[in-house]
C-alpha cells in the first residue's frame, strides 16, 4: 500500500551529540555514510533536522520498502535509533490524520501511547496538549485498542521541528557507536574464523574505517578461506565497515619457517611475520593501529607471554576488542552480525598449515628473536606485500592513502624492497625446492593433518 504523506526515517545519534565542536563533522560523516549505503533504496535526500537526520523516501514507496530502509539504517554505526513514519505540515488536524495512518501501519498491537515533543517552542500547542489531542483522535480511530502509559506495545512519536512535524509508530534501536570514518583507519587481521569478523565490526562501530588483511594458505592449501572472507566482507560492507581486503598467499612462507625454526616456535614465528606484514600495509594505508580477534588464553598464541612476543615486532598499537570476551559471547555477536554461518564453514587457511603438536605457550621475545636469526624477514615482508591481491568494498568513510610526497617515498621504498626481495626470493625458492625436510617429529603438517592450534593450557 502506498502512503498519502511523505514517508521518512528519522535517525537519532546520541553519542555524536556529545562531541561538542566536532558535532557537525560527525553528523556529516553519518549523513554521507547513509547516502552511500542507501543508494539502492528509493531515497530522495537526507537532511540534518534539529539534532537528527531525516531520510526522505520517494513518494509512493510502499510500507514494506520503507521497513527495509529502516532495517538497513539500524545496522549502520552511529545510529542510536531509527523511526519510520511521515512528514507533515504543522497543523493539528493533519497531524492527527497522519498519526492514524502511522498507527494503522504498526505491527499487531493492543496498547499504545503518544509521545509528543517540540524542538521549537514557536508551535503554540504544548507537548502535553498534543499528547491529549492526538491520543483522543487515535482512541476514536482505534476503539478496540487501549492507551497505556507504561510499556505500551506501540509509541506514536510526534516531533515538531522548525517547519514540519514528523510522526511515527515504528521505531527501533540502532547499533550505536560512531560513524565509520570518524575515528581514522585500522588494519584488521581477518581470518575466516568466528572471532576476527566480530573484532573488526567492533572497531568499525567505534568509527574506524577498516582495511583487512587475510593470510591464505595458498599455494600450500586451497583458496577456500578466501571465498569465505569475501562473503564475510560482503556482510560487513552492508554497514559500511570494510573498505579493502588484502589477500596474502602465505603458505610458502609458513613452510619456509617450519623448515627452519624449532617446531614449538612455529606459530609465534608465523604470527610475528603476519604482524610485520599487517604493519607494512598499515603504513601504506596510513592506518593508525592493527586489530585482531584474539581473546586471552583462547589458544596457545593468545597467552599473555605470547601476545607480548607478537606485539614486540610492531610499533603501532594492536587493538584486541575481544580480549576479555568468552567464545559463547563472541558466537552470539557473530550470529547477530550475520557472519556466524559463514565462519562455521570448514575452510583451511594458513592457521591449519604446518602446525606443531606442542606449541610454545610461554614464549619470550629473546627466544623468538633467536629463532628468527637468518630468516630474510624484511625482504619477505616486501615480497609478501607486493604479491597481495586487493579486493575492494563500499566503505564511504574510507579515504584512500594520500599520494603525497610521503606516499611516493613509501612506494619507492616499497619497490626497492621488492627488488631486494626478489633476489632473496630466488634463494627462497631454491630453499623450498631443495628444501631440507625437517627432522622426524618436526615434520610440518599440511592441511588437515594438524588441525587447529591447540588450547593454551
Ligand atoms: P578467529 O579468531 O577469527 O575465529 P581463528 O580462530 O582461525 O580465527 P586464531 O588462531 O584465534 O584465529 O587467531 C587469532 C587472530 O589472529 C584472529 O582473530 C585474526 O585476527 C588473526 N588471524 C588468524 N588467522 C588469520 C588469517 N589467516 N588471516 C588473517 N588474520 C588471521
Ligand atoms: Mg580465534
UniProtKB/TrEMBL annotation:
Pathway listed: Cofactor biosynthesis; thiamine diphosphate biosynthesis
Swiss-Prot/TrEMBL catalytic activity: [ThiI sulfur-carrier protein]-S-sulfanyl-L-cysteine + a uridine in tRNA + 2 reduced [2Fe-2S]-[ferredoxin] + ATP + H(+) = [ThiI sulfur-carrier protein]-L-cysteine + a 4-thiouridine in tRNA + 2 oxidized [2Fe-2S]-[ferredoxin] + AMP + diphosphate; [ThiS sulfur-carrier protein]-C-terminal Gly-Gly-AMP + S-sulfanyl-L-cysteinyl-[cysteine desulfurase] + AH2 = [ThiS sulfur-carrier protein]-C-terminal-Gly-aminoethanethioate + L-cysteinyl-[cysteine desulfurase] + A + AMP + 2 H(+)
GO cellular component: cytosol
Listed InterPro entries: Rossmann-like_a/b/a_fold, ThiI_AANH, ThiI_fer, ThiI_N, THUMP_dom, THUMP_ThiI, tRNA_STrfase, tRNA_sulfurtransferase_ThiI
Domain of life assignment: Bacteria
Comp. bias intervals (Gly residues): 448-457
Gene3D superfamilies with a match to the protein in the record: 3.30.2130.30, HUPs
Binding residue positions for ATP: 189-190, 214-215, 271, 293, 302
GO molecular-function terms, A-Z: ATP binding; CCA tRNA nucleotidyltransferase activity; tRNA binding; tRNA-uracil-4 sulfurtransferase activity
Entry keywords, A to Z: ATP-binding, Cytoplasm, Nucleotide-binding, RNA-binding, Thiamine biosynthesis, Transferase, tRNA-binding
Documented EC number(s): 2.8.1.4
Similarity comment: Belongs to the ThiI family.
UniProt-recorded name of the protein: Probable tRNA sulfurtransferase
Organism: Berryella wangjianweii
Lineage per the UniProt record: Bacteria, Bacillati, Actinomycetota, Coriobacteriia, Eggerthellales
Encoding gene per record: thiI
